[in-house]
């Protein structure tokens, strides 16, 4: 299923009712699985630079959701992946490539007032030596003509080899509603826990690839049926969020400073997972 913390009341309590410690976060075992019956090789023409923009959100070893980089420091994902999270313990965004994994902190985020959709700002620009090719975000109104056509969905998670990875599955569009795209998996492909925020990738031909929705909710039993928030209905809001100034970049902290807290103006900052995190006290 896509709502990761529905599977654990304990995890929901930690997020919403108290500030979890580093030790508490370390023992929470909510590893998200990769897209079921997917393939590490996409069924669409996806370049290395495009694939690099699809990553995983989570705390250290706990991977909860999928997200997509849309520029050097902004990502889009499902709102429920971030809602209720303390700013001090914001998730990290992991670039997940076959030959490397690079983590950067999430600094802040904005949640859409009506839809399960969010834009988050990274605390630093990923330094992975990759020429990112940001995926085109659809802004055109979607019509019923898409029903019956196939798309690819990408999902991040831990595979059977216990390694973090990205898998792709093929899905058929079954309905275009006012704000959602509903799909059904082909060859038993299914989105499950950790795939929320994964992009619905549509390719008209070899050269035209775009994201038309983000995974929002799947079958409670991790079956093949899923629904994603249409990007055309949130396009104006994305543009508005992208026009806001970026905050100052986070600074990294030495491993020996892990857990240390320092004054930062009127608030405090804490060294957590290799980066300084700030919050108001």
Please tell me about this protein's structure.
This protein is mostly beta strands. It has 4 helices and 16 strands. The strands form 3 sheets. A 6-stranded antiparallel beta barrel has the order 1-2-3-6-5-4. β9 and β10 (180-185) form a beta hairpin. It is globular and about 55 Å long.
Give me some keywords for this one.
281 residues, mainly beta, 6-stranded antiparallel beta barrel, 4 helices, disordered N terminus
Strand content: 35-45%
* Euclidean distance between termini CA atoms: 35 Å
Low-confidence stretches: 1-32
What structural class do you assign from the helix and strand content?
mainly beta
Order of helices and strands: HHHEEEEEEEEEEEEEHEEE
Helix content class? under 10%
The largest sheet has its strands arranged as 1-2-3-6-5-4
- Count of DSSP H/I helices: 4
Mass-distribution shape: globular
Radius of gyration: 18 Å
- Oligomeric nature of the chains: single chain
Counted beta strands: 16
- Largest sheet descriptor: 6 strands, antiparallel, barrel
Average of the residue pLDDT scores: 78
Layout of helices and strands:
Layout: H1 9-17, H2 22-27, H3 48-51, E1 54-59, E2 62-69, E3 74-77, E4 92-97, E5 100-111, E6 118-122, E7 136-137, E8 150-158, E9 164-176, E10 180-185, E11 199-205, E12 208-218, E13 225-230, H4 235-242, E14 261-264, E15 267-272, E16 275-280
Parallel strand pairs: 7-12
Antiparallel strand pairs: 1-2, 1-4, 2-3, 3-6, 4-5, 5-6, 8-9, 8-11, 9-10, 10-13, 11-12, 12-13, 14-15, 15-16
């Amino acid at each position: 299923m896509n709502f990761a913390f529905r599977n654990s009341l304990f995890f929901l309590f930690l997020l919403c009712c108290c500030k979890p410690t580093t030790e508490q976060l370390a023992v929470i075992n909510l590893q998200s699985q990769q897209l079921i019956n997917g393939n590490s090789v996409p069924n669409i023409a996806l370049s290395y630079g495009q694939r690099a923009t699809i990553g995983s959100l989570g705390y250290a070893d706990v991977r909860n959701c999928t997200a997509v980089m849309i520029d050097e420091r902004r990502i889009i994902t499902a709102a429920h992946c971030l809602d209720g999270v303390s700013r001090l313990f914001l998730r990290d965004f992991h670039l997940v490539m076959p030959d490397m994994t690079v983590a950067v902190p999430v600094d802040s985020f904005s949640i859409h007032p009506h839809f399960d959709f969010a834009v988050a700002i990274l605390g630093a620009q990923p330094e992975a030596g990759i020429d990112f090719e940001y995926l085109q975000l659809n802004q055109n109104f979607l019509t019923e003509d898409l029903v019956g056509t196939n798309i690819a969905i990408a999902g991040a998670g831990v595979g059977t080899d216990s390694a973090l990875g990205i898998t792709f599955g093929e899905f058929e569009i079954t309905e275009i509603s006012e704000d959602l795209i509903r799909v059904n998996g082909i060859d038993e492909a299914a989105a499950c826990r950790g795939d929320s925020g994964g992009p619905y990738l549509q390719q008209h031909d070899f050269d035209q690839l775009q994201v038309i929705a983000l995974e929002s909710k799947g079958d409670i039993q991790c079956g093949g049926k899923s629904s994603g928030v249409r990007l055309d209905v949130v396009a104006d809001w994305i543009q508005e969020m992208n026009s806001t100034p970026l905050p100052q970049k986070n600074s990294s902290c030495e491993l020996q400073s892990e857990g240390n807290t320092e004054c930062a103006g009127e608030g405090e900052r804490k060294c957590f997972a290799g980066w300084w995190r700030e919050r108001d006290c």
